[in-house]
Amino acid sequence: MCYQKCKPEPNVDPRTGLYIGQCNACPFAYTDESEYVQNLGCLPEPFHIVEMKKQSGHNWACHGDEDKICSGFVNHIKENYPELDTDTGNLISYETWYHHGPEVAMKEADTRWPKQLTLTLEVQSQ
Fold first, then answer.
1. Mean pLDDT, rounded, for 48-58
2. pTM of the model
3. E strand or H helix at 100, and its extent?
4. CA 103 to chain centre
5. CA 70 to chain CA centroid, nearest Å
């Protein structure tokens, strides 16, 4: 791995409605560490992640926990692309993107359940 995996716990700030809890290596953290891993090719740049959302309708998964949507991605979309809806679409896997490229990762997302839907189905079935 190019980076040290982080396990952020995304929480919503009740004042702003934005997620908090992203790690320093998140492409949307805009830190020296995130720039470093992007320059190594270990994580895509925010622009490319947004383009994947526009092309596929899917969301970027957290690179530390692919069962969760990336909190930095959600904040970035809410602040800069209000026309895009992060409540729709499945999750684009970092691992698949890294090993097989964006086209394969977006295609794979077509068949993955969104985590939010999975949790909703579990609650409803009980």
1. 96
2. 0.74
3. helix 94-100
4. 16
5. 3
pLDDT at 92 over 70: yes
CB 25 within 8 Å of CB 3 = yes
* C-alpha distance across the termini of the chain, in Å: 38
Which tokens go with 30?
């805009």
Handedness of CA 21, 48, 1, 29 (dihedral sign): negative
In this structure, the number of other CB atoms found within 10 A of the CB of residue 126 comes to 4
Q: Which residue's structure tokens are 């702003």?
A: 16
- 31 phi-psi bin (left φ>0, alpha ψ -120 to 50, beta other): beta
DSSP state of 81: -
Q: pLDDT value at position 84? A: 97
Say whether 121 sits in a helix, a strand or coil. Answer: helix
Nearest to 63 by CA among 14, 30, 89, 28: 28
Residue 22: strand, helix, or coil? coil
The candidate with the shortest Cα–Cα distance to 57, out of 88, 82, 28, is: 88
- In the chain, what are the helix, strand and coil shares in percent, each to the nearest 5? 45, 10, 50
